[in-house]
Amino acid sequence: MASHRRPKQPSRTRVTVLTTAAAAAVAFSANAANAAPSAKLSKSEVKAKVDKLYEEAEQATEKYDGAKEKQEKLQKEISTIQDNVARGQQDLNKLRDGLGSMATAQYRSGGIDPSVQLFLSSDPDDYLDKASTLDQLSSQQVEALKEIQDKQRELAQERAEATEKLKDLASTRTALGKKKQEVQDKLAEARKLYNTLTAKEKQALAAEQNRASRSSTERVNLGDAPAGSSRAAAAFAAAQTRIGSPYSWGATGPSTFDCSGLTSWAYAQAGQTIPRTSEAQANAGTRIYNQSDLKVGDLVIFFGDFHHVGLYAGNGQVLHAPHTGAVVRYEAMSNMTFEFGVRV
Fold it and tell me: Exposed end of the chain (fewer CB within 10 Å): N or C?
């Protein structure tokens, strides 16, 4: 006789597990069915993305250069203040010794008054505040105490200034580290993209790069355009000697350069100091907004945030350090977004 007992129901926990597993399996199957294999980027697409990453790396490089310049300036200022404090402390010690000698002489000549005894056992800052003691001091002692007090105030102010600059230096070093990491990340991403190309595609890109990086003997259609000044001419001549030198972020020569590193180095060879970064170089002289008014050796600022700079070479050409993977070379200004020129 057949049993009429109801079949045993699965536990709630087991139902939940089974339901979840089934749902996951369905979702996985749907995703697998709908997912298309990621298409390989073409050579031109990789180049465009790599170029964009290089531009972003250069933007970060100029910020890095600015932070590095600020760090070096702060370090010099702090060193100067610390030297001043050390010398000031020596002067203060001499003043105190001199006052002590006066007290000793006074004692030998017939005793030491209570006011000087007070000084020898306490700080002269508090001592001068006690007006009742002033009439017990000689004018020479009063003058010596005032000088000591002034020197103490001066030292306290310099120490406070050094403390603030040390804080600024610490934050600048932090910013420097972040920008350095940002540059390195952008370049690593660019290398990763570049390595997705085949050997043949890499050879084709290298050939394009070689054509762009022509030597000075292959300079064409630049004519004999006049220089903005004798120093501009000398700076341009110096930069010409660096054609073919590799781009290296943060570098100021003499064998590798970033964009503002090349221009600042070139002007330094001409005896002219200009700021380190492209953003600061944008304010290094008179701005020239019409390209037809540019002269050889003028600084040329590119892009809205002024993150790239080169030297005008004549006939719409610029001599510059382009980006990672390239060398110092001539290039048509039309390849970049011109903002203005600067006549130093």
Answer: N
Assigned token pair, 151 = 């020197």
Instruction: State the catalytic residues.
Output: 259, 308, 320
Instruction: Dump pLDDT digits (tens) for 37-58.
Output: 446 788 889 989 998 999 999 9
Identity of the residue numbered 224:
D
**C-alpha 212: how far from its chain's center?**
29
pLDDT for position 93: 86
CB-based burial, 126-146: b 16+ in 10 Å, e otherwise: ebbeeeebeeebeeebeebbe
Contacts 24+ apart (CB under 8 A), 203-206: 204/43, 205/43, 205/47
Residues 6+ apart with CB under 8 A from 253: 242, 245, 261, 262, 265
Residue 343 and residue 313 in contact, taking contact as beta carbons nearer than 8 Å = no
User: What are 312's strand-pairing partners?
Assistant: 318
DSSP 227: B
**Cβ proximity of 86 and 229 under 8 Å:** no
Helix (H) or strand (E) holding 317: strand 317-320
Amino acid 311 reads L
State how far the Cα of 311 lies from the Cα of 286, in Å rounded to an integer. 15
* Stretch among 27-36, 57-66, 176-185 having the lowest mean pLDDT: 27-36
**What local confidence, expressed as pLDDT, does residue 340 receive?**
98
Q: What is the pLDDT of residues 119-131, one digit of tens each?
A: 555 565 565 555 4
